[in-house]
Amino acid sequence: MIKASLISIAAYAPKSILTNYDLEKMVETSDEWIVKRTGIKQRHIAQKDESTSDLGYEAAKVAIKRANLSPCQIDAIICATISPDYLCMPSTATQIARKLGLLNITAFDISAACTGFVYALEMAKALVESGIKKNVLIIGAEKLSAITNWKDRTTCVLFGDGAGAAVISQSKDENFIIDTHTASDGSKGDLLITPGCGSINPASKEMLENELQFIHMKGNEVFRVAVQTLTNDVLNILEKNQIQASNIDLFAPHQANLRIIKAVQQRLELNDDKCVVTVDRYGNTSSASIPMALNFAYENSKLKKGDLVLLDAFGGGFTWGSALLKFGGEIYNVRENF
Ligand code: UT7
């Protein structure tokens, strides 16, 4: 039976950095509050003329290179995003494909908010294991600054821009994706929502005046459900696969809030060196957060071939998911950046 493997990881963060001190000058907040409640110290913000597909493309080309493939060997692109280049069409995946020079390829977006990368991983695994596709490029890319209300202190301190990408291919050894789990509960959709620009509140002067085009979140209600759901989800996937938490080499959770990450980490009884934290430097980058965290571990030699990796994510919808995999990528080449 064919097994799918995650054979490369890469990420891109836009150059410009917005610190908590910068935000103090924009809204009534403080570095102390933001760090204490979220763990975030700074976030990267894309330029005005930099699109979500630009960010995704930067991560994608490195992921393809690290997979020792050329773009023409990729036969499907899945982009997870809640901040696409265009609301309806063309999809961001098609625009990343265009930038990679791929003009005859399966390419589509998925909308699963912060869980998008885990959803994309599950789709890619299915495509590869069914034999339908050989090399699937999955991307989480977000320009959340474009859908953030910079006057709303309850949300604008949380989000950042960035992208992460991975190549999923047929496994040649024991380092394959062991299992994925994805789920949703639409009854809580209103707790984390961009109410405007869709069929319910189409673009209008009134819609813009009410600022419905931006992310709206009932933070503390989301927080409570996130901790409970994520904890159950990671315990379930471990139990289902009869794997002890102590065997995990790397836990790469969605980076929304350090307190959520720590709660799940403690439940798993994992040491800090097994848990990737990037929320301090990138903020919450939604679907990009897991691949950016994985890439951070990879480039800091904390992720190597054969490592047992646990992913978890929770986001708007609500959606949530987890994955267990043995990393199939080659060791990071430090010379790459010279
Ligand atoms: O990625 C998708 C999933 N998202 C999440 O998982 C996010 C989950 N939620 C959270 O991470 C947290 O709920 C937040 C970080 C968003 C908020 O933290 P909190 O501890 O839940 O704060 P809160 O919303 O209960 O607000 C506490 C207080 C309020 O003041 P009062 O009513 O107690 O006087 C807020 O008005 O903090 C105030 N506040 C702020 N103060 C300074 C809210 N935002 C700010 C701010 N600066 N930026």
From TrEMBL:
Every copy of the Beta-ketoacyl-[acyl-carrier-protein] synthase III C-terminal domain together lies at: 238-326
Q: Where in the cell is it found?
A: Cytoplasm
Species classification: Bacteria, Pseudomonadati, Campylobacterota, Epsilonproteobacteria, Campylobacterales
Region described as ACP-binding: spans on this chain: 255-259
What are the record's GO terms for cellular component?
cytoplasm
Function noted in UniProt: Catalyzes the condensation reaction of fatty acid synthesis by the addition to an acyl acceptor of two carbons from malonyl-ACP. Catalyzes the first condensation reaction which initiates fatty acid synthesis and may therefore play a role in governing the total rate of fatty acid production. Possesses both acetoacetyl-ACP synthase and acetyl transacylase activities. Its substrate specificity determines the biosynthesis of branched-chain and/or straight-chain of fatty acids.
Q: Which InterPro entries match?
A: ACP_syn_III_C (IPR013747), ACP_syn_III_N (IPR013751), FabH (IPR004655), Thiolase-like (IPR016039)
Catalytic activity annotation: malonyl-[ACP] + acetyl-CoA + H(+) = 3-oxobutanoyl-[ACP] + CO2 + CoA
Any one GO BP annotation for this protein: secondary metabolite biosynthetic process
Instruction: Show the active-site residues.
Output: 114, 254, 284
Protein family membership = Belongs to the thiolase-like superfamily. FabH family.
Question: Which organism is this protein's natural source?
Answer: Campylobacter corcagiensis
Q: What does UniProt say about this protein's domains?
A: The last Arg residue of the ACP-binding site is essential for the weak association between ACP/AcpP and FabH.
Per UniProt, residues of the Beta-ketoacyl-[acyl-carrier-protein] synthase III N-terminal domain are: 108-186
| CDD domains recorded | KAS_III (cd00830)
Top enzyme category: transferase
Q: Which Pfam families match?
A: ACP_syn_III (PF08545), ACP_syn_III_C (PF08541)
Q: Which domain of life is it from?
A: Bacteria
| Residues making up the signal peptide according to the UniProt record | none
What keywords were assigned to this record? Acyltransferase, Cytoplasm, Fatty acid biosynthesis, Fatty acid metabolism, Lipid biosynthesis, Lipid metabolism, Multifunctional enzyme, Transferase
Pathway recorded for this protein = Lipid metabolism; fatty acid biosynthesis
Q: Name one GO molecular function term.
A: beta-ketoacyl-acyl-carrier-protein synthase III activity
**Could you give the subunit structure recorded for this chain?**
Homodimer.
Q: What is its EC number?
A: 2.3.1.180
User: Which gene underlies this protein?
Assistant: fabH
Q: What is this protein called?
A: Beta-ketoacyl-[acyl-carrier-protein] synthase III
**Where is this protein chiefly located?**
cytoplasm
